[in-house]
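Task: complex structure prediction.
Instruction: return structure tokens for all chains below.
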Amino acid sequence: MTDQESTNETNSSETSMIEETSDWSEIIFQTLFELEKKYSKSLRKKEVVGVIETENDRKRVSDAYIYLNSQRESLVDSALYEGFIDMGELREASYLEQMFLLEQRLKNFGQFVAKSCQSIFFTMGKPTMEYSSIDFEAKTELIVSEDKDEIKLFIRKNQDILRVFESTFLSYGDIMNYEKGLFEKLLDKKFKKKDLEDLLSIVETEILSKMISEKKIRVIQQGDYLLFSKNGDYEEVKGISSSVLLSPKKN
Amino acid sequence: MLMEEKFYGIDEEQEDQPEIVKLPAAITDEEKSELFKELTTILSRRWVKDKIFVFGSSEIDLLLATRFDIDTLREIIEEYKRFVEILGLEVVEYSLDNDTWYSLKSAFYAPSELLKSEFIVLGTIIGLLETQTETLSTKTVKEKLIDTNRMKAYQVDLCLRKLTQQGYIKRHQNVLSYNYRTLVEYGEEERRKIAEEFRKI
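Output:
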């Protein structure tokens, strides 16, 4: 064997060693990387990895530092060790938590929720400021109940207010007739509120109110006028709903 | 008698309306300080609306009370936000029945009205709503808290009623969802953390 041949052989064995080392280093780095991912994920989710499992993982990478070449690989190695330490702390905290009674854990949870609350700021109590007009005062009259004359006088004075309305019982047919009459009177016509009060009776007004709430007839306010129309698409009218109080003159 | 009012002849009506006050040119510093005092009073009030507590004032009420136009009002509120920040308060906006409401929130600490048991029930609801995708029923909350002998049935019912009244949760046909107050008092991050803590118990 010539010197040249011997040199070639040495070179080839060195190359294969280097290749083998580089393969090994690749595998070690791969393991480090996967374990680092596993621990950071578990820590993020606060999932405890058991002691034996962590110890096995630690043994797998205990000699890794020998094969690490670049700074990037060393950084992954240190991140993994930090993960091991944090996992140890999390495990201890979780063991300690489990030692608490269920009630205590629940109480602690309640405390945590309370601490996380950024409460609305407000003052309690009923309003003490006057917001109605001071000039306005409801007038009340005191009547001694024994004094019959005074009661009679009071009733006579307030006869309009105290008038008793007779209850009207309407059958379904009556209501239908009223509704038909109202359609004929009002549909596609415009009325001023005052005219409407003259036109309608108390019962008719009640029925009209019922028809509007049942959406059988639609009323639109146009300035001073109330326009009655057959029920259509409510979406097409954009505006605000409001109420109109009618005091019919007819009984 | 219910009816719909259509805005006919708005131009004619506008002539009769009082002139809209424009800010900042039309308002002096003195008037502004008066306005800020009034805003503090109104925004720190609690009202009852549809049987639940609401806080502060709606935008539409502020517009009617001040007679500002919308841009001016928002401009004033932005300025007011900077003013109350010094006091450790924040102006929060929340939506209620499609209306914008403004109220004040403590940036650091304000005592809460809720009891510990109510916080537990609220935390459980947050924990469940944040983790599950399907709707949350009252039954699920009760199963979580009563069946494991953690709380009594009447306690949970009482807490749910108070949380509903206080504007933290909405109950519709026994399906629970967040109401405005949970979203105002607990940010996304806080709700996530509560869900994490909930998983532990």
